[in-house]
Design brief:
Number of strands: 9
Number of helices: 6
Radius of gyration: 37 Å
Low-confidence stretches: 266-315
Largest sheet: 7 strands, mixed, barrel
Structural class: alpha+beta
Strand order of the largest sheet: 1-2-6-9-8-7-5
């Protein structure tokens, strides 16, 4: 059972729901220690006071706010705990919104909210079912680690999940990062949409961290005294310059369809030179008219020859 990060309550109007907060994710990354290359001894980070140069323990460290370069204000944990903040002991629901109106950029870490004891079972289930039936998410405020935060409550597999959110002023404006709008052919956009359709899947649970797998293999090989596996020839992808966007889209659609086991015969939907294709169609339509005219001319010549070869009738 994962450890409890925080204990408190959800404040839902006049309803109070005792809960325990448990991280919804876990760190599966492989971590390294810093070591001395000469003797493999651990290299540790020491906290040193810049005035006397002495290392200090965690018990000797407090919080200070630098008011000016020469003046620092000490703030104790007791003072922070006594601040008149309603969200210090509760996750306070402030409003409800449509779930799909929340910008994913604002969503941070996720936490499961577990009912704390049997007394919390009924109000917990009540809130969960209200969220499910209304198809809405709750906007909440809470205070952890000496700061008030914004959160989003929604339901996942019969559990209420709290997503930490960033405040509106914490999101940078991306408008200055966007490139100047280039000229795009409508056919290029349609082909890009077709590529997205051909790469659409229903379940992403099959994705794996290939880097972590390779790193585990490297560590296992070195621990067993083996040579680590080397990448096969052609396995490394080199970045290249896209010279023909439409050709790249066509090739991408074909590869995506082949990967899904679909026929790639009709992967190329649009011709690269639509104007010449249109001209060819016009020529094809005019061709029968020329043949008809030539048939008429031939018929006239044949009739003239027959008339010339006949002998005049006597009176």
């Amino acid at each position: 059972m994962p450890s409890t990060i925080w204990s408190g309550a959800i404040s839902f109007g006049l309803v109070t729901i005792p809960i325990k907060v448990i991280s919804a994710t876990e760190d599966r990354s492989i971590h390294f220690h810093q070591v001395h290359l000469e003797d493999m001894g651990r290299v540790r980070t020491r906290k040193v006071c810049e005035i006397d140069g002495e290392a200090v323990s965690q018990e000797e460290i407090g919080k200070g706010y630098e008011l000016t370069k020469d003046q620092t204000i000490l703030v104790t944990d007791e003072e922070l705990d006594q601040m008149p903040l309603p969200t210090a002991k509760a996750i306070e629901i402030a409003a409800f919104v449509e779930a799909d109106t929340i910008d994913p950029v604002r969503i941070g870490d996720s936490y499961y909210l577990a009912a704390d004891g049997q007394v919390a079972a009924k109000p917990y289930t009540l809130l969960r079912r209200a969220l499910e039936r209304s198809d809405k998410a709750a906007i909440a405020k809470f205070a952890w680690h000496n700061r008030e935060r914004l959160g989003l409550l929604r339901v996942r597999d019969n559990a209420i999940v709290l997503h930490a959110m960033r405040w509106p002023d914490e999101i940078r404006d991306p408008s200055e990062l966007a490139p100047k709008e280039p000229e795009l052919d409508e056919k290029e956009i349609e082909q890009a949409v077709q590529l997205a359709d051909s790469m659409t899947i229903d379940d992403i649970s099959g994705f794996r961290d290939a880097y972590r797998d390779a790193l585990e293999e490297l560590i296992e090989a070195k621990s067993e005294g083996r040579e680590p596996a080397q990448p096969a020839e052609g396995e490394e992808q080199q970045p290249g310059q896209v010279l023909d966007l439409m050709a790249a889209l066509d090739a991408s659609v074909k590869r995506a369809k082949e990967a899904r086991g679909e026929s790639s015969e009709h992967a190329t939907v649009h011709e690269m030179k639509p104007r010449k294709k249109a001209a060819a169609k016009k020529s094809a339509k005019k061709a029968p008219a020329k043949k008809t005219a030539s048939r008429k001319t031939t018929a006239k010549k044949t009739a003239a020859k027959k008339s010339a070869g006949r002998k005049p009738r006597s009176a």
